[in-house]
Structures are given as structure tokens and as C-alpha cells.
Amino acid sequence: MSVRNHSFVTEFVIVGFPGLQPEFYGLASAVLLIVYCCTLIGNFAVLILFATPNILHKPMYIIILNLVVSDVLFSTTTLPKIIARYWFQAGAISFIGCFLQMYLVHYFGSVTSFLLLIMALDRYVAICFPLRYPMIIKNSTIHILNATAWIVAKACPLMMVIRAYPLPYCDSNTILQCFCDHISITKLACTDRAPYSFPAFVTAMVVLLGPLVFIIFSYCSIIVAVVQIASPQGRLKTLSTCSGQLIIIALYYLPRCFIYLASNVGIRFSTDLHIVIIMLYSLLPPMINPLIYCFKTKDMKQTLMKKFKKSTAP
């Protein structure tokens, strides 16, 4: 009998936090709705800033613009469904819909990883090769790199979906997660998942650790270049141009690396705590990043203050 004939599951049910008591469903949905609204408001505010002044039409801000789009799309892919699950008890998602969500979750995560690599490249060239920066990093160059990130990021999630979709799903259809991802779906397959999970794990490591290796190299090179600057004021000024990017990169990579390392050294978390950690590193950065963009980047901060003064002027 074919694998497809064993797939009796026609829909999945997203459980969210399995240990959450029903009396807290309203509170959970309200918190998630606030996170989603703050994410949309903050990121759309950044988009509005980009829409007006030419001062923001620079390589670094073009990268930030792409990060904003990726963050909004990721949050829109994941949050509405889990909010509906707790608010309206509508946790069911179609078989195809779950795999579509899985693809988008991993796709936007991969896009963000590659965009952070491009961001690190921009700072590396700006600080280590300042005289060559205008020739190497142009708006057209960044547009090409960003487009490449969006295109290349399609490959790994697509491979995951193609390998996971035909598996036989004939037992439980409850997903112990707040959204459909590769691990939570393939755990439900009525077959040995090792031949499918290991290639997916290797792919995830390449997408995660590949950019991270270059990011670490670039910022180590930046530190070496900064140490060679004679004046303390010059060192602080140079480092300040990287502070916002470092915070964004740390918010994305550190929790993910912690989860992967913990699972490999035998550290085990409860299911609810594991889901909470995943939700924190998945959904908080898109909400916090707009604040970092606006208050840690000089041009955006000045543009925001000008708009605020203009709106409050009599």
C-alpha cells in the first residue's frame, strides 16, 4: 500500500501550551494579541519612516526595511492562528494549511538569518575598509544581496516540506506547539522519522550556523579594527554604529543556539517551558526590533524626532 494511503489525518489541531488551564485561555489570547498589535504598529511605523525621507535610503536602512517585512510576515503567519485557538477555541488547521504554515515559518526564519549576515557584511566593510565602503556597498549591491537572500531561503524549507508531506500521518493529529513546524509535524508520522529529521537538522544548522560563523568573524574583525583607533571617542563612536545590529543579532541567534546546544548536551525542559522559550525568541524580536531601529540608529532617530516635533508643533 502506498504511503499516501496511510495518511488518514485530514487536519491538525494546534494545542499551543498543553499545560495551560482553560480559565487562562482568555489571558493568553489577549497577551498574544497585544504582542501582534505592537509588532504591527512598530514595524509599520518604521515603514512609514522609510516612505518619506531620502536620508534613510542607504544600504543599512535598506537591510532594515527587509528585516521589517520579514518580521511582519513571520508574525502574521504564526500569531493569528494561535490567538484564534485560545480566543475562539479554533485550533484546527487543514492538512495543507499546516504544511503551508510550516514552510512559511522556516522560510521567514531563513530569510532573517541571511539578512543578518548581510547586515554584518555592511558593518564589516564600513569599519574595516571605510575608504572602499562607497565602492563596495552600494544601494544596488544591497538590493541584489537582499533579493538573493529572499530567493535562496526558499530552498531549505521547500526541501523540508517535500520530504515531510508524503509521510503517513495515521495516529494523533495534535501539534504540541503554537504553530506548525517541521519537528512538531514529523513527530506525528507513523514511521521512523530519523531518515527525515537528521537531514532537516543538518539543513537548519547550515542556515543558522553558516551566517553565524561569518557574523562572528566580521565582528571579531571589527573589534580588532576598533582597538587600533587611537582616540577613545573614536572607538566609542565606531562601536555605537554597531550596537543596534549586535542587539538584533543577539536576540535572534543566542536563544536558538541555547536551545540546540541544550538538547544536544542532554538538558531537558518541560513541554510548556520549551514552547515558551521558542515563542519568546520567535515573537519578541519582531516586536522589539522597531525600538532598536529607531533609538540605536542615528538617522532613524533624527527622522523620528523631526516627525514628532512637526506633529506636536502648534
What does this structure look like?
The chain is an all-alpha fold and 314 residues long. The chain has a single domain (11-305), classed as Rhopdopsin 7-helix transmembrane proteins. Helices cover 74% and strands 3% of the residues. The protein contains eleven helices and three strands. It has helices at 25-51, 59-87, 95-128, 133-136, 139-152, 155-164, 182-186, 194-227, 232-264, 271-296, 298-312, and strands spanning 11-14, 92-94, 174-175. The protein has a three-stranded mixed beta sheet with strand order 2-1-3. The longest helix is centred in the middle third of the chain and has 34 residues, at 95-128. The protein is globular. The model is unreliable at 1-6 (pLDDT under 50).
